[in-house]
Design brief:
By secondary structure, the protein is α/β, with parallel strands linked by helices. The chain has two domains: 2-212, Metallo-beta-lactamase, Chain A (4-Layer Sandwich), CATH 3.60.15.10; 220-289. It has nine helices and twelve strands. A seven-stranded mixed sheet has the order 1-2-3-4-5-6-7. Strand 9 (140-146) and strand 10 (155-159) form a beta hairpin.
């Protein structure tokens, strides 16, 4: 259901994939992420045209994951803006990315697969940034703030006058957070930063609109995961055993029906990522404590990348 959450700022939180928004600025329309499914992208275009005849100027992608960027191709006149790391990731999307996408949706949403088979195009950013960036259009001030955590490319979109924050996947409310490309220490720092901004409504990457309290929920969860993984590591458990022993932590979150077949596998992959992170922290601590007492070699395991919704 589309909602106008501030003058000329519209949000849809019930499409498949990520939450999306459009802003009518008086000088053109700006999109925040794009609907993943072709039919919903068409509906989104129609919703925009009902409300304005202004052209769509820009798409701001909050990260490079498919739920946020697949729909870019359905808005061909818009220039895509994203973090430089998002561009680096998206330029590598090739045949394996396409094959995984088609296989994942072949039985679930076959009509989308037919469209993607014929015309799947990854529209990469034309405009990139690495630090806090300000966009002024019409009466809107839009701040693009890279915070990392969820991915190195993750960016939040802040409207200081309207007191709105589009948090991307730094905050989710209706599913387990995707940890497999994240850094939980940076993620906690990002959430602390978000609590210092002034806003009344927080739009998560996935799930219903909420408030600043959702950042506390995310922080509490990430701290718990780090604590339990550190305890498992300290007791001598390897990465795979740690992931198996802590897989019950997924129950902290609701799991959408369509995600259930792969939720456990994805969650264990995320726990493995956290184990690597904790291992690096503990080995670095040992190295610092052991300076002058001998040489300690830090050797990290390679990681397998896990798909994100």
């Amino acid at each position: 259901m589309i909602r106008e959450i501030a003058p000329n700022i519209f949000v849809e939180s019930e499409y498949h994939g990520a939450n999306v928004a459009f802003i009518v600025t008086g000088e053109g329309v700006i999109l925040i992420d794009t609907p993943m499914l072709p039919k919903q992208a068409q509906l989104w275009q129609e919703e925009i045209q009902k409300r304005t005849d202004q052209p769509i100027l820009y798409i701001i992608n909050t990260d490079h994951h498919r739920a946020h960027v697949i729909g870019n191709q359905f808005f061909p006149m818009a220039k895509v803006i994203a973090h430089e790391r998002a561009w680096k990731e998206m330029k590598s999307y090739g045949d394996s990315f396409r094959t995984r996408l088609l296989n994942m949706y072949r039985d679930r949403i076959p009509e989308a697969v037919e469209v993607w088979k014929a015309s799947l195009e990854i529209v990469k950013p034309e405009i990139t940034f690495t630090g806090r960036t300000f966009l002024f259009k019409g009466d809107k001030e839009i701040q693009l703030i890279p915070v990392g955590g969820h991915t190195p490319a993750t960016t939040v979109i802040y409207f200081p006058e309207e007191k709105l924050l589009f948090a991307g996947d730094v905050v989710v409310t209706n599913r387990p957070p995707f940890l497999s490309q994240g850094n939980t220490k940076e993620w906690l720092e990002a959430l602390t930063f978000l609590r210092k901004l002034r806003y009344d409504v927080l739009i998560p990457g996935h799930g219903e609109l909420t408030g600043k309290e959702a950042t506390d929920h995310m922080s509490n969860y990430l701290r718990m995961v780090r604590r339990k993984v550190r305890s498992a590591y300290s007791s001598g458990l390897g990465k795979a055993d740690t992931a198996r022993s802590l897989s019950h932590l997924i129950r902290y979150w609701p799991i959408p029906t369509f995600e259930k077949p792969k939720a456990d596998r994805r969650f264990k992959s995320g726990l493995g990522r956290v184990w690597n992170e904790i291992r690096a922290e503990e080995l670095a601590k040992a190295r610092d404590q052991g300076k002058g007492k001998g040489r300690i070699v830090i050797e990290l395991e390679d990681e397998e990348e896990e798909d994100e919704e």
